[in-house]
Design brief:
The protein is mainly β.
């Protein structure tokens, strides 16, 4: 009897030991090429990313979201457009490579630019391999863009989210730093009261009334008075210093006169726009 009790005790201890040392389930998957935002963080190319540097493969959330973090506050730095996310230079066709660490049965893979889905791959519940590649056309887009890639799992309500920053073709530089300094130099006579209208935008028409003598040629630098928002930010619009626009529900003030280009959205170019 004593021997039976001893053997049973040893079995219980062994089973408890096995449970204690059992490894945690591995995580899931992310885009390694071109590097996604979580890959950039894991490689140390972007600072202050939080815990994502240890778990680039774990950005999981409910299906149907359209953000980089999957709606999880732990990965919120991935949604921060103020960070200096490097943009990978590509052509119109890009091959996205996923590293898969847990091979979940898959329904679909989706790719979005803004609110537009540009590609869909249907796996019909198949289990992927350790890597998955998709070749996607960007539809003739140029300049800096952000692609949202979504891996929809077949047997759960969740999906995995990746954002990839790209510089397509010869569009605007990924980190534009234009310097624009408008200067007006009117020439007047003693009887003139000149009105100086700088070629900035119709919203700014400063009036300068200098007191001069026949030998004077004054140099006037118009003072720009900030105005209320002129509407939503739009590429191709000429903005003046002091002009205000709306972008994603946030008001921004123009710091330097320029003509807006795709990729120069206010959150991306703090040299041009100040958030109010």
């Amino acid at each position: 009897m004593r021997r039976i009790i001893t053997l049973l005790s040893a079995a219980v201890v062994t089973a408890a030991t096995v449970v204690f040392v059992a490894p945690a389930a591995s995580a899931h998957g992310y885009i390694s090429s071109p590097p996604s935002r979580q890959a950039m963080c894991a490689e140390g190319r972007v600072s202050n990313c939080g815990d994502i540097i240890w778990e680039p493969q774990s950005v999981e959330g409910p299906k149907g979201l359209r953000n980089c973090s999957g709606g999880d506050s732990r990965w919120a730095p991935l949604d921060d457009e103020r960070k200096a996310w490097p943009a990978t230079s590509v052509g119109d066709t890009v091959t996205f490579k996923w590293l898969i660490e847990a091979r979940h049965a898959t329904s679909t893979w989706e790719y979005y630019v803004g609110g537009t889905r540009i590609a869909l791959f249907d796996d019909r519940g198949r289990q992927p391999g350790s890597t998955v590649s998709h070749t996607v056309s960007l539809g003739g887009r140029t300049g800096r863009i952000k692609v949202l890639a979504i891996w929809n799992i077949a047997d759960t309500e969740n999906a995995f989210y990746n954002c990839v920053d790209l510089q397509v073709g010869n569009g605007p530089d990924p980190t534009p730093t234009p310097t624009v300094t408008p200067t007006q130099t009117p020439t007047v006579t003693p009887t003139q009261t000149p009105t100086v209208t700088p070629t900035l935008t119709p919203t700014v028409t400063p009036t300068v009334t200098p007191t001069v003598t026949p030998t004077q040629t004054p140099t006037q630098t118009p003072t720009l008075t900030p105005t209320s928002p002129v509407g939503n930010w739009a590429a191709g619009t000429a903005y003046t210093a002091g002009a205000q626009v709306l972008y994603s529900g946030v008001t921004y003030r123009c710091l330097q006169a320029h003509t807006a280009l795709p990729g120069w959205e206010p959150p991306n170019v703090p040299a041009l726009w100040q958030r109010l």
